[in-house]
Amino acid sequence: MIFLKRQLPLAITFVMGVAFAIQYYVPHPVSEEAITNVSKWMQIISGFALALGLASLFHVHAVKIKRQVPGWGYSLVLYITMVVTIVVGFWSRGETTVDGAKTGLGWLYDNMMVPLQGTMFSILAFFIASAAYRAFRARSREASVLLVSAVLVMMGRVPLGQFLLPWTWDVTQWLLNVVNSAVRRAILIGVSMGQVALSLKIILGIERAYLGGGRDQ
Amino acid sequence: MILPAFLLFVLLLLGTPALAATLTPEGFRALDTPNDAGKSLSLAWKASPDDRADRIVQVWMAESPAAPFKKVAEFPSNTRYVKPGDFPWWAQPAGKGDHYVKLVSSQAFPIEDGKPYFVKLLVRAGDQEVWSEVAEAKAAPDMFNTAQANNLAFVVVFMGVLLASIAAARRNPHVHLRRIAGLDAVEEAIGRSTEMGRPILYLTGSGGMDEVSTIAATVILGEVAKKVAHYDTSLKVPHRDPIVMAVCQEIVKEAYIAAGRPDAYKDDSNFFITSDQFSYTAAVDGIMLREKPAANFFMGSYFAESLLLTEAGASTGAIQIAGTDSDHQLPFFVTTCDYTLIGEELYAASAYLSREPVLVGTLRGQDIGKAVIMSVLILGTFLATVGVLLDTDWFSYLLDLFKDFK
């Protein structure tokens, strides 16, 4: 049991990790084919895993409806919409259009999914405003620097700002190309080092927490 | 009258071979394109001071010297040079400033591996046309990209540094770790949730298990779950990826067992919502507003949903801890969360929370790697500047070692 739960996954991780680290340096078509095949395998596994996700979704909401926990009505709405979408999807044979005409599934997607997604995305504008308001209150020296640079960048980016204060364009470019880029690159160097280190730890079996349980088991 | 005409005739006679000599591509050769997947040939020849836009070079190819040649490329003679940065000095197919043309297999002229091909150039200037000699080459795939040898050497050295750091940490486990406020606050956040009797919400980001940041997020989840089990608080982990969900279920289960509370583990603490970005966001926002978790954790990689999630969480008054390597989302997290693990801190979290010498040792290895990179940046900037001022290529031999070549 310990072999299946610990040693085998670690061995697979080591072999695949080393193989695909080497693959990066091998331009041979065999190497390209290997990575393509593994990508296909991952897609197949993801497809099977979706059944796992659906089972979880059905289970969680079925329990909520059964126990009538607060907000169980939302779970009922989810069940109904899911069943309707599946039925319409089968009825439309999974196609959104047939001979240029919209199917039931296409209608559901265009008139339900797209507006709902658009609504969620549009909320971002209001959230940016409220988050910016909180962040730009000059409560500390750092927040004041943030406020001043944000105002300068905003002025340099909008036509009215450039018309009123033409010099803000150059300041904006300097802030974005020098200050902002330098910090971003510093973060990215740290991220890259961290990713390489974590990858090596996983490949060498030093980091095992992702397998579940402590490292000493 | 006769004398100038005679002189002009002599000049014309002498001038024709002279013009032909300047048109002829010097040192023309065909070769297999280095460091590639095959089905490609490269051509190289010396640059000439007479190269100019109105002098046209045509590339003609054939499968045998006797077969009819076919035109496969045409360009002005003052283009297609080897530019600095195209190839490292140890894998340079042609000298700097030489002409270099890569021919790839196409429908018009397919190139097969292992088959000889014959190539010649036609240089045309006005009415004058000069053919080069015929060069022969075979295409072949390569087993190792020598241009990336420096990259491989860096990885091997970095791996050695990491292993040495781990060995050093095993001998002397008292390695100093700088304080990471966001990770110190984990305990506080869980304690607060326990006191308020509200759940803890933990998100692993939008990536799959093939992303390092998601793996880091699942590793931190294990440490958080142990503390949650210890405090006997409720944990909710909504997922966008079923595979991540399956992994997290196992991690949380094992964490509860490790904490000595297997009875407190609930199988539905990890649950799948949807893989659609904004549907997932709407569902998690709904959980935040209805169940009002006292602590929200946002670990892993995020996209446009980051602010929608954290702003909704901030409105409920929850203590929020984020950790991401998505640099474009960091400003949103910093603005709306109480604590943010910036970039590499996400990867350091596992070592920081567990304080295990082996893992802490790797952090020292990372720091050594960063110190080397910073030194190279400073030295490289200095040498590149001196190289430009002195108009010399000498420093490129050193600088190429630290460049990324494909």
Give short descriptive properties of this protein:
heterodimer, A: 217 residues, mainly alpha, two-stranded antiparallel sheet, 7 helices, 79% helix, B: 406 residues, alpha/beta, Immunoglobulin-like, Rossmann fold, six-stranded parallel sheet, five-stranded antiparallel sheet, 19% strand
Summarize the model shown.
With 217 residues, chain A is mainly alpha-helical. Helices cover 79% and strands 2% of the residues of chain A. Chain A has seven helices and two strands.
How would you describe this structure to a colleague?
The complex is a heterodimer of chains A (217) and B (406). With 217 residues, chain A is mostly helical. Among the domains of chain A are: 67 residues; 73 residues, no CATH class. Chain A is 79% helix and 2% strand. In chain A, helix 5 packs across helix 7. Chain A is extended and about 65 Å long. With 406 residues, chain B is of the alpha/beta class. Chain B has a six-stranded parallel β-sheet, with helices on both faces. In chain B, strands 3, 4, 6, 7 and 8 form a five-stranded antiparallel β-sheet that branches. Chain B has a three-stranded antiparallel β-sheet with strand order 1-2-5, with no helix packed on it. The longest helix of chain B is centred in the C-terminal third of the chain and has 34 residues. In chain B, helix 2 packs antiparallel against helix 10. Chain B folds into three domains: 121 residues, Immunoglobulins (Immunoglobulin-like), CATH 2.60.40; 58 residues, no CATH class; 177 residues, Rossmann fold (3-Layer(aba) Sandwich). Chain B is 44% helix and 19% strand.
